[in-house]
Amino acid sequence: MNKPLFATHWPAANPDILQLYSLATPNGQKVSVMLEELGLEYEPHTVNILQDDQFTEEFKQYNPNSKIPAIKDPNGPGGQTVVMMESGAILLYLAEKTGKFIPADPVARNECIQWLFFQMASIGPMFGQFGHFHKFAREACLDPYPLERYSKEARRLLGVLETRLADHDYIMGSDYSIADIATFPWVRILGGYYEGAEQLQLSEFKVVNSWLERCLARPAVQRGLVVCGLD
């Protein structure tokens, strides 16, 4: 009998625990940070997108859209194995599995999910486009319009966060949640890997910067940010 493809490309040393297939990008860091915050036992596997690992038939078993991260949880509801793609869906799954980092109150829970979707629908895609045109496409695209467009939209979204956090320690108030875990890696990358601090005038967003520092100070965040990193 043939082994499943994942057993050959990313073999599990301990298949009885949660398996993470990821890379230390903002989307990947969301899930590794969440797992570290929860203290769940898991086994990380690096999916090197620079070598097109995500397009292999092995990885497409877990995400046919060829995007990291993905997980396999052998201890899902009712003891069933659960395979998950999409970072926001994985965060929600883990929060509901453990009852942590999501409000118990139904109204607050709904609000938290809205801010999670705000990151998925707006923060991630727009910040990613900014990074592409600011850092990677300057020589390939001489037209200033794309960078101007995505710089303006990135600043607008940072303004939304600035307003939300004006009287909140975290996106949901005093409690750190999956809304923060989803969002802060994308804010972090703007002035880090994307080198966009001057272009976006990030120093103007003082409330957002303070919130980011609070998130980054958490020990589980510091551990989670480097999981599945490349040497």
Automatic annotation (TrEMBL):
Stored PROSITE patterns: GST_CTER, GST_NTER
Database matches in InterPro entries: Glutathione-S-Trfase_C-like (IPR010987), Glutathione-S-Trfase_C_sf (IPR036282), Glutathione_S-Trfase (IPR040079), Glutathione_S-Trfase_N (IPR004045), GST_C (IPR004046), Thioredoxin-like_sf (IPR036249)
SUPFAM superfamilies (alphabetical): GST C-terminal domain-like, Thioredoxin-like
Residue stretches making up the GST N-terminal domain: 15-102
Domain GST C-terminal, residue spans: 105-231
Protein name: GST-like protein
Species annotation: Aestuariispira insulae
